C-alpha cells in the first residue's frame, strides 16, 4: 500500500527542513491520506478535484445539504443526527467515508459554506441524481413534522438548481408529506434486492451495462414530461412520477449492492 500524501509530505518536508521537516510532513500527509481514504497516486487527482469543488462527490454534496437543512430548523437535534447516520448506512459508507460525511454535515451547518455552486455542478455532471439528493433533503426537513419556512425555501431553490420541473417538485413534496401523515409507506425502504431487480426487468447478477440500459429505457418510458407532451391526464402524470421514483430507488439499491457507478 502506498500513501501518496505521506510520501509527498516526507519528501517536501525533508527538502525544506531536513529530517525534522520530513517527519512532520509525513505525519501531516498521513493524516490527510487517512482522512481522504487515499491508497494510490491515481486516487489523488479526483480527490483534489472534489476538494476544490471542480468535481463534486454525491455523498459530499448530499451531507452538506443535509447539514444546512438540519440547521434550517434553528438547532440540530439528536433526531437530525440519527437520520444522517441512517443515510450513511443506507449508502454503505465505510469508516473514513463516514468521518468525511460527518465533517461535510458539520460544514453544511455553517452559513459561510457555499453549497449551491457545488449542487449545481453535481447535477450538471450527474443529472440523474438530483431527485435522489432532494429525496434525502426532504427526509431531513420532515424530521420534526412540518418543515420550517427556511427549509421550504432551501428545498425549492435546490430543486431548481437540480433541474427538477415544477411538476416533479410538487410530486416529491406530496409524496413525503403523505408519508409524514402515515398514509403511505416510504418508497425507499419497500421491497428487497430481488424486487428491485424485477422492477428493472433484469437479473440481480446481470452485467452493469445491461442494468444501466434497462434503467434508462424505463426512465424514458415513464418520464412525466414525455407523457405530458402526449396529453396524459393529471392522474396519469402523478402515477408516472411515482413509478419514476420507484425505478430510481430500485436502480440505486442495486447499484450500491453491486458496487458500480
From TrEMBL:
InterPro entries: DjlA_N, DnaJ_domain, J_dom_sf, TerB-like. It comes from the Bacteria. PROSITE patterns: DNAJ_2. Coiled coil: none annotated. Residues 195-261 form the J domain. Keywords: Chaperone, Stress response. The keyword Chaperone applies. This is Heat shock protein DnaJ-like protein. The lineage of its organism: Bacteria, Pseudomonadati, Pseudomonadota, Gammaproteobacteria, Pseudomonadales.
